[in-house]
Every structure is written in C-alpha cells, then in structure tokens.
Amino acid sequence: MPCLNLSTNVNLEGVDTSSILSEATSTVASIIGKPEA
User: Fold this and answer.
1) Which residues contact 35 (CB under 8 A, 6 or more apart)?
2) Nearby residues of 25 by Cβ (< 8 Å), 6 or more positions away
3) Is 4 exposed, middle or buried (0-12, 13-18, 19+ CB in 10 A)?
4) pLDDT per residue as tens digits for the range 1-37
5) How far apart are CA 9 and CA 14, in angstroms?
6) Among candidate residues 32, 8, 2, the one with its CA nearest the CA of residue 20
7) Annotated Gene Ontology MF terms (predicted)?
8) How many alpha carbons lie under 13 Å from residue 31 in its C-beta half-sphere?
C-alpha cells in the first residue's frame, strides 16, 4: 500500500487539514495508478 508522509514547519493548530490530506491522497493514488485505501 502506498504511503504519503507530509511534513511542514507551518503551525496547523486550528486548521482543518482533512481536505488537504484528502486531495493529496487522491492525487497520489491517481498518479501511481493505485486505489485509495
């Protein structure tokens, strides 16, 4: 199963990251031709 590690130096407190991570997951799955888990 593919794995995406995302790190940042930006403070994400109070930020809804679910949409960012969902879009990143979808994009990576599309690029590598694998289904989302």
Assistant:
1) 29
2) 4, 36
3) exposed
4) 677 888 999 999 999 999 989 999 899 999 999 888 7
5) 15
6) 8
7) phenylpyruvate tautomerase activity
8) 8
Label residues 10-29 b or e (16+ Cβ within 10 Å = b): eeeeeeeeeeeeeeeeeeee
**CA-to-CA distance for 26 and 17, rounded, in angstroms?**
14
Q: How far apart are CA 33 and CA 18, in angstroms?
A: 22
State the DSSP string of 2-35.
-------SS--TT---HHHHHHHHHHHHHHHT--
